[in-house]
Amino acid sequence: MDGLFQTLNAETIFGVAGIGAAIIVFLIQLLKSKLNLPKPAAPFVAFGLGAALGAIAFYLPILPELTLMQAIVSGVIVGGSSTGLYDLSKITKLLNG
After folding, report:
1. Who contacts 25 (Cβ-Cβ below 8 Å, separation ≥6)?
2. Which residues of the chain have pLDDT under 50?
């Protein structure tokens, strides 16, 4: 794990994670509206989409420093973060009226 952080810089980590989270939030909302994805299933689908995006990032050499497993785990973390990002936007909307 120590070697991972020596090869990746903060710009790569936060850039890929931020873009990935935004893509996952968009895809989840699209699935909810078009395919009637049940709300309780959304976090699980987000984890799956994150894993898929992690694998895609590995094979498209977006994250060439990572192994496939590290890219998939990173994607799952981003998927989980995207559900928190969406929940935070709902809370902010509620607080602002």
Report:
1. 82, 85, 86
2. 1, 5
Angle 8-12-16 (CA atoms, 0-180°, nearest 5)? 130
User: What distance in Å separates the CA atoms of residue 68 and residue 59, rounded to the nearest whole number?
Assistant: 8
Distance (Å, whole) CA 78 – CA 22: 10
Largest distance between two CA atoms of the chain: 46
Q: Which two tokens stand for residue 8?
A: 């990746």
pTM: predicted TM-score of the whole model, two decimal places: 0.77
Measured CA to CA, the distance from residue 15 to residue 57 in angstroms comes to: 12
Give the model's pLDDT for residue 84. Answer: 82
